[in-house]
Amino acid sequence: GRINNISMEGLMFRHVDSKTQSTESLVLDILSVDCGFYLGNIRFRSISDFALPEEFSNSSIKMRQFQLEFERLSNAQTDQLEYFMWKVLAGSKKNWVNDAEADRFVPTPY
User: Fold this and answer.
1) Angle CA(106)–CA(107)–CA(110) in degrees, nearest 5?
2) Are 83 and 36 in contact (CB under 8 A)?
3) Residues with Cβ < 8 Å from 97, sequence gap 6 or more?
4) In this predicted model, what pLDDT tens digit does every residue of 28-48 receive, in sequence order?
């Protein structure tokens, strides 16, 4: 799905209604091809999940909106999420106040 809103506490996204419910414990992966970012195995708690009205869906494709709260992020996940949010919100390194500030958010490989 497409992320509509994100913070350090959680996110909201829209997705195609698959009409199936999983009983497994789920984790979330965040992938952004635009900025070459991947953050995997994020544990979360569901806040809301509901069908969107027809005006937000194609007549043959039903959409849902899902809101979640992150749970027990590791220090590495917190650092990577913070980096992702700065990259998305700031756009690119040239928009930073200075290079030293930008470099503080470059994640280390784990």
Assistant:
1) 160
2) no
3) none
4) 998 888 778 899 999 999 999
